[in-house]
Amino acid sequence: MIRNVLGSVLALAGAAAAVLSPFRDWYDGRLGRHYRVDELFTGITAGRPGPLGSILVAFLFAAVLAVVGVVLRSRLLVAAAGVVVLGFTVLWMVRQGESVGSLTVAGDGSGLGWGVAGAVAGGVLLLSGAAVMSGRRGAGRRSVRKGHDRPYAAPGSENPDTWPPTQEPGPSVQTSTLPEPEPELYTGPDPAERHRPGPGPGPGSGSGSGSAPDADGRPHG
Hints:
With 221 residues, this protein is mainly α. 47% of the residues lie in helices and 2% in strands. A two-stranded antiparallel ribbon has the order 1-2.
């Protein structure tokens, strides 16, 4: 986070320096916005371009790239903006040197001006900002780290339909499948008959008459 903030500050400062540089002297009191973009490829002339044909357009394009790169935290876009600024500045120095024979730095303003220094400083700041920024990779690492810190989900919670899990086959206690024995039925005399009184003596039998049978079953005489 701190690296992105510091890199963004450097990138925005470099974009501002690059945009302001064409409004200052570049060589012999001539402003940077008085140089045409196509003169950087064909040669320096004394003509003055319109607002949309000067070197200022290239630096505005680089500033837009830098702002978009800061918003998106893209190191590639910020670095591309720095390359554009430094590339056009170096290309101008080559063409200007061919035009006048050599580039000089004089205290009276007859040589290179502060505009060129501002353009070079802007390009260097843009490249420095791209190098300092951490980009989106830091956010990706934080999200991965947060994912590792999360507790693991309980088994089967992803698919509740399959919970609880099926039990794997293993040794188990088998119950007997034999039929239980049925209780035996009582076939003896009815217990109620035992307590029922027997029949009394028949008619004609006296109270003392009658004899009990002997052991052989015959009655005594």
